[in-house]
Amino acid sequence: MEEEFRYQTEDCVVVCPECQASSAGDLQPTLKRLAGCQNCKQDIDEDGELSGVGDAILSALSRRYGSAVVWQEWKAISKL
Question: For the segment 24-46, what is each residue's pLDDT rounded down to a tens digit?
Fold first, then answer.
């Protein structure tokens, strides 16, 4: 039986088809795009539900910038 292969977010660049936020983008502009995108914001706010594009982009940013920094910035930007 063949094993299912799953891409990890560090293996590729994740881009939201609606807001064009990218896991390869700079922190502040990417978080602003995510916060302005209804689908990405809802995905991130659902925390623990099904992971989608917003979660994947946030996860990739967390690996690049550090989880504490990303979540602090996200909380500030997503409340604007």
Answer: 999 999 999 999 999 999 999 88
The pLDDT, as a whole number, for residue 50 is: 66
Query: Hunting for tokens 């064009």 — which residue is that?
Result: 20
Nearest CA to 8 out of 60, 54, 46, 64 is that of 60
Three-class SS string for 21-70? CECCCCHHHHHHHHHHCHHHHHHHHCCCCCCCHHHHHHHHHHHHHCHHHH
Q: Averaged over 54-75, what is the pLDDT?
A: 94
Report pLDDT for 2: 59
Residue pair 52/43 in contact by the 8 Å Cβ criterion: yes
Look at the block and give the residue holding tokens 């997503």: 78
Those residues with Cβ within 8 angstroms of residue 60's Cβ, 6 or more apart along the chain or in another chain? 9, 10, 14, 23, 24
